[in-house]
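can u pls check wat happens w/ iron/sulfur cluster
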Amino acid sequence: MTRACDGCTLCCKLIPVEEIDKPRTTWCSHTAQDKHSCSIYASRPISCVMWSCRWLTDDTIPYDLKPDKVGFVIDPVLEDVQLTNPDTNESIIVKAVQVWVDAGHEDFWRLPKYRTMVLHWMAQGHLCIIRTKTPTDGRCLMPDGQGGITLQRHTIDYDMVSAKIKATIERIRRTSTAPKHVPPTEEAHD
Ligand code: SF4
Ligand code: SF4
């Protein structure tokens, strides 16, 4: 199925745009009044020209996760997360999927249909960073070592991550053979 923004402008609210000093999780002042288009489309900043969310460009993301339908935007760029062992000072870098969430959707991952997607990312060796309105409100989803997900708050302090979780991350990084495609969300319904 062909994908198009088609009236969605959620990234114009959630994603910061440096050139125009637009903060995260705040509607851009150039968003049209009906919130369905950009009023300066022909002359929009280059970062807006270059941007496409992962739903738009990656058809492994289920079609029904269109950002304006679910209240979050999956960033196309993976973030490096450094986990450091405070005893040995050894570090590992783990890639993390970044999800920009609208207010009220911070716990999206607790819903079965989204848990499936996050668990699939973790099976590929990725963590998941939840980007909220407050930059310091660090939230990182990690495997709990028992096939589930654990939420780490204050993620700046990665030394707090338990050895068990780190071991799990190391293991899935070494052994990941997960299929590329995210299972359809319908399969996750109870
Ligand atoms: S969030 Fe994705 S689908 Fe929505 S407007 Fe932005 S690029 Fe298009
Ligand atoms: S300038 Fe246009 S495309 Fe860029 S964030 Fe604002 S409304 Fe969206």
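The CA atoms of residues 139 and 153 lie 5 Å apart.
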